[in-house]
Amino acid sequence: MSTDPNRYVAKPILFDLTPADFRAHLPALLSIYVTAMRYPRGTEHHRAPMWSEHAGRSGWKAVAAALPDAPGTPVGIAYGYRGNPHQWWNQQVRTGMRHVGLPSDRIDEILDDYFELTELHVHPEAQGHGIGEALLRRLLHDRTERTVLLSTPEVPEEDNRAWRLYRRAGFEDVVRRFVFTGDARAFAVLGRRLPLDPDPSSGRSEVPR
Fold this sequence. Notes:
Aminopeptidase
């Protein structure tokens, strides 16, 4: 990819992906993921079967972003699906909620009807120009679930673009400094009510109380 920052000023092209499209573009999409998350090369080969399986889940939706001068080359990807008690992420988050002392009725309320924002990544060379927020809003548009939940790595002072995006979009803390099985890093679980505010400056909307 070009490192010319002026290349990314143009408004991105957003397009929904069918499961077939998603699977056909998995190598390019996983490359964005691995680069944005700073995972070691080869991680994409381990994640490909899981991403492919996710595309068959209930309520699945995926949105990709490209730039006008290279519409066939994705620079961003976001996807998710309807949460379910039988899913690994749901079970992990439920455990985390119990560990921080949330009461059972509060846990059930949060996990009763939610969209899991599973992945949202923009290639580092394309970050800082609103592509992540555009993907977020396109992905969550017209969702029928009551809330949206996600997990993101903890960083000092919440000082990175992902955290600033989620806070700007109104996401609130659900569980902090949680370690998922198989990953040594600490994550935050964040959530908010749906629909997403049409105006990014209109304020936060908390997860159910």
